[in-house]
Design goal:
This protein has one domain. The chain is built from one helix and no strands. It is elongated and about 45 Å long. It starts with about 30 loop residues before the first helix and ends with a helix. This is SGNH hydrolase-type esterase domain-containing protein. GO terms for molecular function: hydrolase activity, acting on ester bonds. Pfam families: Lipase_GDSL (PF00657).
């Protein structure tokens, strides 16, 4: 059905968002273009 979009939403950014290549948490790393696309998808989902 057609649902109204949320009035407000919170997107939490944390340590997983700062994972760098070459570090012990490298398996969590997301390339910047993929990261930007993921944010775009979150925003589109909330609309």
């Amino acid at each position: 059905g057609s649902e109204d979009p949320p009035v407000a939403a919170t997107v939490f950014f944390g340590a997983n968002d700062a994972a760098l290549l070459g570090r012990s948490n490298e398996r969590q790393h997301v390339p910047i273009l993929e990261y930007k696309e993921n944010l775009r998808k979150i925003v589109c989902h909330l609309k």
